[in-house]
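Sequence only, no structure available. Ideas?
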Amino acid sequence: METIKQLLQDKGGQVWTILPQASVYDAIYLMSEKEIGSLLVVEDERIVGLISERDYARKVILKGRSSKSTRVSDIMSRSVLYTHGGQTIHEAMAVMTKHRIRHLPALEDGRLIGIVSMGDLVNALIAEQQFIIEQLEHYITG
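Reply:
I predicted one. C-alpha cells follow.
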C-alpha cells in the first residue's frame, strides 16, 4: 500500500499558502492561477487555517459578501486535520471521508511536507488497483 510520503514524492510537495489578513479575492485568484482548490493559511510560519473554494462559495457568495473586502481569516476553516508521511492512502481517505474534507496537509517531524486532495487519493487508489489487475493478468496468462 502506498503511503502519503510516496504519493507526495510522485506528486511533488509544493504547497501554496496565504496570510490570514489577505483578501478572499487574493486567495481565489491564487487558487485559480495555480489550479488548486485550497490554500493553507499561515502566520508566523504556523498553520492557522485552511481556505477552500467551498469556503468561498458558502461563506462569501451565498452570504452576499464582497471577496475584495472580506479577509481570509473571516471565512477560513480554523480546525485543520493533518496526516503524516507514514499513513497509507487508504487511511488518509478514511479520515477525509469521515470528516467530509477534501484537503489534508501532511506533516513529518512537525514540518509541512505537502498537502493531498481527495482527487490525489482517488487517483493513487486507481493506479494501485490497475497495477494489481495487471499483475493478476500476468500471473494468469503466464
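The two ends are 24 Å apart (CA to CA).
Hope that gets you unstuck.
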